[in-house]
Amino acid sequence: MSNGTEMGDNPSEKMEVVRSSEVLFTEQQLIIQSLKQELEVNKKRIAELQDSIRRLTADFENYKKWTAKERQTIERTAAESLIKKLLDMYESLGKAVSTKTDTKENDFIEGIKMIYKEFSRILKSEGLEPIPSVGLPLDVYKHEVVMQKVNDEVPEDTVLDEIQRGYLLNNFVLRAAKVVVSQKSAIPENTQNSEKSEEDKGG
């Protein structure tokens, strides 16, 4: 004999189960929403960190380039300073080699020639090369004018003579060549006037 409504058919129990399910679903939705928000925050943090890493990497690469350039500048400056000090000795050896001497001094001169040749090889390997001058147009970056001479046979500002040789070191001017350049002879004023009068007569 039935004693009334069974437990599973109790409406209040069913409502309680439904409410519990809704609460559980709501809680799950809140948890999911919270996780999504946290995920978005973490994504932003990761993006910011990646951006920071990229910027730091770029800064470090720029720093390496800068230090390499600074090192090259320091090395070049040191080389320039040393080679400048050696130029006078080098040129003195060159003059000694080209000077005519007695046969008794031939052995000594041959020794000087060997030293000069080796000296030249070392300086060339370091990037030293003479600046071409005589017969060329004046180059204000490579030539220092110390004198002008009248010469109508060549274009004006042609290098006629070299007083002191100039040098390039790795394509940079180490020492400008001191040179003599040509200039045109001045046309006398009376000649200009006579030429003008001849033109007037012809007109």
UniProtKB/TrEMBL annotation:
Domain of life: Bacteria
Matching InterPro entries: GrpE (IPR000740), GrpE_CC (IPR013805), GrpE_head (IPR009012)
Key words, A-Z: Chaperone, Coiled coil, Cytoplasm, Stress response
Signal peptide annotation: none
Pfam families per UniProt: GrpE (PF01025)
GO biological process: protein folding
Ranges in coiled-coil conformation: 32-59
Primary location class: cytoplasm
A GO term, aspect molecular function: protein-folding chaperone binding
Entry's localization field: Cytoplasm
Entries under SUPFAM superfamilies matching the protein: Coiled-coil domain of nucleotide exchange factor GrpE, Head domain of nucleotide exchange factor GrpE
One Gene Ontology term, aspect cellular component: cytoplasm
PROSITE patterns: GRPE
Alphabetical list of HAMAP family matching this protein: GrpE
Biological function: Participates actively in the response to hyperosmotic and heat shock by preventing the aggregation of stress-denatured proteins, in association with DnaK and GrpE. It is the nucleotide exchange factor for DnaK and may function as a thermosensor. Unfolded proteins bind initially to DnaJ; upon interaction with the DnaJ-bound protein, DnaK hydrolyzes its bound ATP, resulting in the formation of a stable complex. GrpE releases ADP from DnaK; ATP binding to DnaK triggers the release of the substrate protein, thus completing the reaction cycle.
Subunit details: Homodimer.
Family, similarity comment: Belongs to the GrpE family.
Protein's UniProt name: Protein GrpE
Name of the coding gene: grpE
